[in-house]
Design a protein that fits this description.
This protein is mainly α and 194 residues long. The chain is 61% helix and 4% strand. The protein contains seven helices and two strands, in the order αββαααααα. It has a two-stranded antiparallel sheet. Strand 1 and strand 2 (38-41) form a beta hairpin. Helix 5 (78-98) packs parallel to helix 6. 4% of the residues are buried.
Amino acid sequence: MNDKIKEIIEEIEAMKVKLGEEIAQQEKDITYEIQNGYVRFEKEVLDKQKKNMKNLLTWFRDIPLLHLLASPLVYAMVIPAILFDIILFVYQQVIFRIFKFKFIKRSDYILFDRQYLGYLNSIEKLNCLYCSYFNGLIQYTSAIAGRTELYFCPIKHAKKVAYQHDYYDEFFRYGDEDKYQKKLEEIRKKSEKK
C-alpha cells in the first residue's frame, strides 16, 4: 500500500471519529446511562416512551396479513443461525488457537439493548431481539472470516466488493505477485497480533 492510500485511509478513520462525535451531539437530547451492561432511562423519559407504545391490539390491527403469515419463516431462520453460531464458536476455539490469532469478541457484535426502550411493545421487542442477534451474528461472522482471510489469502479482488471487512485494506493488490511472495510471511506474523 503506497503512502497516498495510507493517508486517505487515515483521513477516512479521522472522519469516522468526527462523524461519531456529530451523531453523539445530535443524540444528546436522548438521555440514558449504561450501568453494569443495562440501559437506564430517567423515570420521566421512560414514562414518556411508554405513552408512545402501540398496544398489541392496535399493532395486530395495523400489520398487513401477509407480513403476519410470513413471520414463521422469518423466525425459523433462528434455528440455522444458532447452529451456525455454535459452529463459529468451535471454529474460533480450534483454528484461532492453532494459528495463534487474537480472538474476535462475540459481545462486540451481538448486542441486546433495545428491550430497554419503553415505546416498544412485547412483539416489537422480540423483533428487535431477533434482528440484533441475526445481524450481529453476520457481522461477527464477517470479522472471523476476515481475520482468517488475512492469514490464508490476503489478496484484494479484481472486482470491487460491496463490503470490505476491517482487514481488507492490508491485503495485497490483485495481481501483485512480487509483494505476495516477498511479504506473505511478514503479513502473517503481523496478523497473529490482530
